Amino acid sequence: MPSAPERCLGRNAQGAWVIDPVVLDSALQLIIVWTRMQWDMTPLPSRMRSYKRFGALSGQRINCQMRIKPDAARHIVHCYIAFYGDDGQLLGLVEDAEGVCSKALNRLAHMKDNPESRYAHELP
């Protein structure tokens, strides 16, 4: 679902997004899900080669398609992300979003092996 500046920044926000940060972040979260499921690693976004805008990320729904290209050592994931409108029109294209992967970063996502330990840092 596309977002609106006034819902994210307050009702006094004016104008429209050039690139919807909520839609873009949602796509990056999908890369995390894929990498955790396939490699049991968490990627840390490190760069995007480019974003090409062909239209506003607006409408009822945004469809996201990804092509993920892992490196041979499974330490870097490369992803190409396409955003489509309800009518199938290409609205945006992320070229080569790159994430550096590590099992050490898995601790950031509720510690898979010991769910109770995720709260160990909280004081009584």
What's the layout of helices and strands?
Layout: H1 5-9, H2 21-39, E1 42-53, E2 63-70, E3 76-84, E4 90-102
Antiparallel strand pairs: 1-4, 2-3, 3-4
Explained architecture:
By secondary structure, this protein is α+β, with helices and mostly antiparallel strands. The chain has one domain: Thiol Ester Dehydrase, Chain A, CATH 3.10.129. It is 19% helix and 34% strand. The chain contains two helices and four strands; from the N terminus they run ααββββ. It has a four-stranded antiparallel sheet. The longest helix is centred in the first third of the chain and has 19 residues. The chain is globular, with a radius of gyration of 17 Å.
Please give the oligomerization state of what you see: single chain
| Largest beta-sheet characterization | 4 strands, antiparallel
For this structure, what is the CATH class? Alpha Beta
| Shape assignment | globular
How many individual helices? 2
Mean pLDDT: 86
What separation lies between the terminal Cα atoms? 39 Å
